[in-house]
Amino acid sequence: MRAALMYGAGDVRVANVPDPTIQEPTDAIIRVTYACVCGSDLHPYHDLEDTPDGRPMGHEAIGVIEEIGSEINRLAVGQTVIVPFAFSDNTCSFCREGITTSCKHGGFFDGLETGATQAERLRVPQADGTAVVIPEGTDESLMPSLLTLSDVYLTGYHAAVRGGVGAGTSVAVVGDGAVGLSAVLAAKQLGAETIILMGRHESRTDLGRAFGATDVVAERGEEGIARVLGLTDGEGVHVVLEAVGHMPAYEQSYGIVRPGGTISRVGVPQYDNAAVGFASLFGKNVTLTGGPATVRAYLEAAIPQVLDGTIDPGRVFDRALPLDEIAEAYRLMDSREALKVLIRP
Amino acid sequence: MRAALMYGAGDVRVANVPDPTIQEPTDAIIRVTYACVCGSDLHPYHDLEDTPDGRPMGHEAIGVIEEIGSEINRLAVGQTVIVPFAFSDNTCSFCREGITTSCKHGGFFDGLETGATQAERLRVPQADGTAVVIPEGTDESLMPSLLTLSDVYLTGYHAAVRGGVGAGTSVAVVGDGAVGLSAVLAAKQLGAETIILMGRHESRTDLGRAFGATDVVAERGEEGIARVLGLTDGEGVHVVLEAVGHMPAYEQSYGIVRPGGTISRVGVPQYDNAAVGFASLFGKNVTLTGGPATVRAYLEAAIPQVLDGTIDPGRVFDRALPLDEIAEAYRLMDSREALKVLIRP
Question: Domain Enoyl reductase (ER): where (chains A, B) (predicted)?
Answer without folding.
Answer: 8-343
